[in-house]
Amino acid sequence: MSSAAAHSGDPYAGHGSQSGFGYSQNQPPPYMQPPDTPSRSSYYPSKTAATEQTSSGFYDRGMSTSRRNPKNWSRKCWIILAIVSIIVIVIVIVVAVVVTRENRYPNYSKLQYNLVDTFSGTNFFDNFDYFTGYDPAAGFVHYVDGPGSVALNLTYATATSAILRVDLSDTDTTTGRKSVRVTSKNTYNDGLFIFDVKHSPYGCSTWPALWLTDPSNWPTNGEIDVAEATNLAPDGNQVTLHTTKDCKMNVKRKEIGHSMSTNCLNSTDGDSGCGVQGSKATFGEEFNNNGGGIYAMELRDAGIRVWFFDRDNVPNDITTSPSNSTSVTPDPSTWPQALADFPSTDCDIGSHFRNQSIIANIDLCGDWAGQPKYYTEQSKCPGTCVDYVSNQPGSAYQNAYWEFGAFRVYQAS
């Protein structure tokens, strides 16, 4: 190395170049391309290299061309595809069935009704038998027979009204208080029932009901509670069905009441059945202050519907005259929406409700009214239900009576 090169300050000097810098004019200086830095060509593979890498899977983010071809799929792939397809089909079918079921609704077409029975006037109670057995609802009550009821003035009828009440005269009620339960002599498998109710019973410990059932085959032949409440009836009327299995109401319904439960099987949820709650004005003190109203119940294969009409809104085709008039024929197809609707969508009405008798009674305490949830918490009644019946004077039951105008039963021709 020459001294000039040694002292030039250029570490690359003296490497034998024409310009004295030690490299050819046709080549870049070595420091422009460090030995361990990849060349430009290493960042951009040749077309051949790229093709090779792609075919090996390095640059292809999907399946290779051969895998996209169904002819090259393995048996396992076909099985997976078949399973997925079946699952999708099942889901589509289930969704379709659910949507269809939720939108199904029976055909409540117009029926031509004819009057078949009228309970009215002084002979009102001639249409009924008096129940005198042990109360099946475990009430703290003594049901009185016909002659006893007349003697105690618990049932009586005039030309315009029929009264059924709890006894007010008994001073010894330590084993229960006297009351009345009557059952119609005629039974029905279908029909339109019109009940003119002028006064509904209410008061602590009371459990009044206007209902239909087959007393000799309950609950197999069903129960329809048209008007029912307990104690002070703070929430109004509850319309309820009680059945054996396979009668549910979690389906499309057209009603103005509030559904309380949808499984009508009597043995579920404390024998509560499937109930629909009405407004406060449909039973009790407010109902009575408004002059009562009309309850109508239609029992047919398409379903069971219950309407409540206050005195100012009774349809023109419902007569409230006590006379046995056949000049007016009711037509529910023209009425507004029912208070409670129990369609046959998921319940065979015809098989669940047969041989129905009309029943009116006033129970005391028992399985419903006597429960603390309803006696104490809901109605704020004092002490316990049994203690109340045992110790309160008859004056505590001044409002514990039914007053009916007329009952009419129509059946389709």
Structure characteristics:
413 residues, 8-stranded antiparallel sheet, disordered N terminus, alpha+beta, 2 domains, Jelly Rolls, 11 helices, single chain
Structure description:
- With 413 residues, this protein is an alpha+beta fold.
- The protein folds into two domains: 73-103; 113-412, Jelly Rolls (Sandwich), CATH 2.60.120.200.
- The protein is 20% helix and 24% strand.
- The chain has helices at 3-6, 40-43, 47-56, 65-68, 75-103, 146-151, 285-289, 349-352, 366-369, 372-378, 385-391; strands spanning 113-119, 128-130, 141-143, 155-157, 162-165, 177-179, 181-184, 191-199, 206-213, 223-228, 238-242, 258-259, 274-277, 293-300, 303-310, 340-343, 357-364, 401-412.
- The strands form three sheets. Strands 1, 4, 5, 8, 14, 15, 16 and 18 form an eight-stranded antiparallel sheet that branches. Strands 2-7-17-9-10-11-13-12 form an eight-stranded antiparallel sheet.
- The relative contact order is 0.18.
- The model is unreliable at 1-25 and 30-62 (pLDDT under 50).
